[in-house]
Amino acid sequence: MIAPIREMPANLRTMAHDDIAQVSDIERRSYDFPWSHGVFRDCLLAGYHCVVIERDELVVGYSILSVAAGEAHILNLCIDPNHRERGYGEQLLNEIMQRADLAEVREVFLEVRPSNEIAIALYKKKGFRQIAERQAYYQAADGREDAAVLSKTLKRSG
């Protein structure tokens, strides 16, 4: 395995409406079945924790975190294909986990394609564990792909 290239500094900040074009472009280049521009807009309008990571004023990744009823759900976390293996995914995950903690979340959930071994390795490194599998969850070129459901319990005092 190749060690990640470390390119710092990167800036983490709340996603703005002006970022949606860059975010949508990354999404389209990363997935065969990408979220639409409107989905990102709706996530911002809904008040989800939408974060971008940028380097030299260029958005290189993003994440969407939904928080409700003491739980959080990582809806999307993606790094531009041209900027992967540089530690940006881990930085972004650390940021949204910190936001979940500040929101006094007890548990964080996410779905991930079992074929996405790099993402699964990162989530497991950060303490996520698989708790379930969703059958035929993701659209795929040859039909549907299952999803691994991962969870991490956050330590809450009191």
Which structural traits does this protein have?
about 160 residues, Aminopeptidase, alpha+beta, seven-stranded mixed β-sheet, single chain, globular
Description of the structure:
With 158 residues, this protein is of the alpha+beta class. The chain has one domain (11-153): Aminopeptidase, CATH 3.40.630. Helices cover 28% and strands 38% of the residues. It has a 7-stranded mixed sheet with strand order 1-2-3-4-5-7-6, sandwiched between helices. The model has no long low-confidence stretch (mean pLDDT 92).
**CATH arch. level architecture:** 3-Layer(aba) Sandwich
Q: Evaluate the radius of gyration.
A: 15 Å
Shape: globular
Q: Could you give the distance between the termini?
A: 41 Å
**Sequence of strands across the biggest β-sheet:** 1-2-3-4-5-7-6
Largest sheet geometry: 7 strands, mixed
CATH superfamily: Gcn5-related N-acetyltransferase (GNAT)
Helix coverage percent: 25-40%
Our estimate of the beta-strand percent is 35-45%
| CATH level 3 topology | Aminopeptidase
Structural class: alpha+beta
Text of the CATH class: Alpha Beta
N to C succession of SSEs: EHHEEEHEHEE
The chain-level mean pLDDT equals 92
The figure for the number of domains is 1
- Helix tally equals 4
Q: How many beta-strand segments?
A: 7
Low-confidence parts: none
Short description:
It contains 4 helices and 7 strands. It is α+β, with helices and mostly antiparallel strands.
SSE map:
Elements: E1 11-14, H1 20-30, H2 37-45, E2 49-55, E3 58-68, E4 71-79, H3 88-102, E5 107-112, H4 117-125, E6 129-140, E7 143-153
Parallel strand pairs: 4-5
Antiparallel strand pairs: 1-2, 2-3, 3-4, 5-7, 6-7
